[in-house]
UniProtKB/TrEMBL annotation:
Family stated for the protein in its record: Belongs to the radical SAM superfamily. Biotin synthase family.
Domain Radical SAM core positions: 70-294
Functional summary from the UniProt entry: Catalyzes the conversion of dethiobiotin (DTB) to biotin by the insertion of a sulfur atom into dethiobiotin via a radical-based mechanism.
GO terms for MF: biotin synthase activity
Name of protein: Biotin synthase
Cofactor(s) it depends on: [4Fe-4S] cluster; [2Fe-2S] cluster
Residues noted as binding [2Fe-2S] cluster in the record, renumbered to the chain: 129, 160, 220, 298
Reaction(s) catalysed (UniProt annotation): (4R,5S)-dethiobiotin + (sulfur carrier)-SH + 2 reduced [2Fe-2S]-[ferredoxin] + 2 S-adenosyl-L-methionine = (sulfur carrier)-H + biotin + 2 5'-deoxyadenosine + 2 L-methionine + 2 oxidized [2Fe-2S]-[ferredoxin]
Amino acid sequence: MNATNSQSPFGSSPSRTEVAQGSRQARTERVGGTARNDWTRAEIAALFDLPFNDLMFEAQSIHRANFPRNEVQLSTLLSIKTGGCPEDCGYCNQSASAESGLKAEKLMSVQAVMQAAAQAKDAGSSRFCMGAAWRNPKERDMPAIVQMVQGVRQMGMETCMTLGMLSEGQAKVLADAGLDYYNHNIDTSPEHYEKVITTRTFDDRLETLENVRNSGINVCSGGIVGMGETREDRVGFLHALAVLPTHPQSVPINALVPVKGTVLGNMLADTPLAKIDEIEFVRTVAVARIVMPESMVRLSAGRESMSDACQALCFMAGANSIFTGDKLLTTANAGDNADAALFAKLGVVPMQAEVKVEMEAVAAE
Ligand code: SAM
Ligand code: DTB
Ligand code: SF4
């Protein structure tokens, strides 16, 4: 089974046999063993300050030492429960306090989720990420959630869920169901955090990450750039991730998608200059790659309005995962045809799930 099939616009990716035949050494220049979690803010700030070419060289060197050079992992998102969220995240159109006009919906049926997952697999995705606009899952929702995880796994895709805060017990239930990844972002620096969200604290987020980590599920945690934060906040954001007891296995870097009716969307509409500079965005990706050398770095929301050149720089800076498809959770995404064209231009191919697992296993040795 390939990561792609005949229906995928991404064309051919290395087959399982090719992957098995090409030794890991041929695909990377060195393997793992370089992660540290004693980074200081001053060290991270110094990386941000490097001349751009030096920063890119360092990030690309670390990237190719740890990962296949020209492979990008594909994940597909599905909003399994949209809108009406009691949290007040200033960037989010799913918050009940946003005036974005988004209609609140109930949790999707397991069957409808399976249909969407089958389509994602056909389009070449190796991971299916299911997101719910909840503060936290209720106990009554857990049986359906467990069935969704089991069903998607049976299709041969990796599973990821993002359902808000998770208790120790709920993390265990999801781990037992076979969940591969749980996404819970710290979003920004501890200092900037309270300017964006008031209904749950930065420490609440760290507690959920601890529950997930202790359950054995892989942690996916990152944040958003372009929310009016300072360079110092971007340093503090990456520092908070880099000093976790274990680096998140996956680090999504989102560029704010400004949605009218949200606090931050309105703010950006009033002050267009506040939009993040693309070079500063690429620097953030590069520093993430350097300080978390063995983590997958995902170029997440915001690609739809990003030039091919900016995305190419992000891949050069060490991003090696994207969300595919026309839609993220509720907002537009670049789309498979645009992505396939970009991959062809760059000579990039979809990463196979088993390659990534193999790399992670070696890094952990
Ligand atoms: N409700 C759950 C939670 O917040 O934990 C899961 C879904 S939530 C939409 C997942 C993440 O998507 C957020 O933590 C945030 O980092 C990102 N996100 C949400 N809206 C965004 C936007 N407009 N632009 C960029 N990233 C966004
Ligand atoms: C993440 O860091 N980005 C994704 C995923 N994790 C769940 C979500 C992006 C959402 C962008 C806004 C939307 O489409 O609703
Ligand atoms: Fe709710 Fe998640 Fe949106 Fe925050 S980011 S308002 S928790 S859906």
